[in-house]
Protein 1
Amino acid sequence: MANLKLEGVENLLTELEKLGKEGEKIERIVLVKAGEKVKEAIVKEAPHRTGNLRDKIRVTKLKKVDGAAFVEVYPSKDAFYAAFLEFGTTKMKADPFMSRGYENSKEDVEDLIVEEIRKGLGL
């Protein structure tokens, strides 16, 4: 799983923490929107011989582990073959469409997160 680390937005994140429940609501909205943005980029990169794979990319609801909130973007179980495409096999070259989509979306996602946090904080 790839992680997106934001630099330079520590002040915004600190302000979110101070807001308590309202901050958690903003955090949830921001992370889901960011996940959707990553999903869009992955769908654009996905092989489309039948279009099935593009329809099977999902975004989870907000999850928290050890206080860290996140969403995951993943192919559904119906698209189990996505791993074969992403990483390749002994008989097939890798086509890392998920990695490309993630890399292509990073700057847009960072901008979206900053914009949405500021909007949520009324700045």
Note: The CA atoms of residues 30 and 113 lie 6 Å apart.
Protein 2
Amino acid sequence: MPRRPPIITAGIDLAASPAATASAVVVWSGGGARLAGVRLGVEDGDLLDLVAGADRTGIDCPLGWPVAFIDFLNRQRRGAIELAEVDSVPDRTAIVYRRTDLVCWHGGDRPLSVAADRIAHPALRAAGLLSALAGRGLDVDRAGRGAVVETYPAAALRHWGLPSRAYKRAANGPARRELVRALLGAAPWLTVADDDRDLLIRSDDALDAVVCALVARASLLGAVTRPAPADAEIAAEEGWIAVPTGELSDLAC
């Protein structure tokens, strides 16, 4: 019986500039997985090649903007905004958060607003990358059914019962070391070279990229949140955050 080819998933912790962007590649075969590479300072061209070479890529960045926000901007250009539309925090929340963001809120996570926070800068870069990938003939469905899927590492870690807060930035190095220990302890089927393990401890960007690659695997297995039928149309435009629904151990099947 011929052996099945390995599955390749990739993860991208996308920043506004290449300097703060990280990527990871995980190769899945024979009931196990291997971290085949993790990088910092990744340029656009390398990101495009990464996605093209993977079965699915998880991207930690919004892949679209709220439909209500786009409508708001179009009407604002015409001077057609009623004060009552923006007179309260709930009114403004309905404009600047996507449907997937609000669903995550109800699940206990708080994504940033792509319309009203600095995450918009990476999202602008993501929009260019998705267009370039589409130009290469890849399916870049924003709801996560094609080459890419939107991820939220903190939500994934929380679902898997791992530390999901206070591991960012250099000052939280001890917490990040503990998170790497816990993650690899919960995934003994994942082979990680010593140098790569050290990089995950040093860099939260690199660590998030690996989590994105793991979520991409969950997405391929159908073990992530999907938009309800009523949200399918808006998810295709705004994007949809894929949060794992199964156990971390399920990924190595």
Note: The mean pLDDT is 95.
Protein 3
Amino acid sequence: MFEIEVPDMIGKARVICYAVVNLWLPTGNTQHFVSSELQAAAYGLAICQYKSGDGYYLFYCNSDWIEFVDTWHETIDDAKDQAEYEYAGIANSWNCK
């Protein structure tokens, strides 16, 4: 198995946990839009936290771990629950730093 290199920071947020989406198909429970354009499934998900902020962000990233959409969550478990809602089975794929 090959090693995935995930940055310690995405933008200015610290990466806490990450998961590669490639094994999990989107459930279709949600859709994400940027400038009215429907976004494709993410390559990877990262749970991140800004130094000055409360809560956690679930970043939807491309293969270069650049975030293109995010959702805010009060807890890490809430972010993981959202990820599972969107990608059934991903709960067992999290890697934490």
Note: The chain has one helix and eight strands.
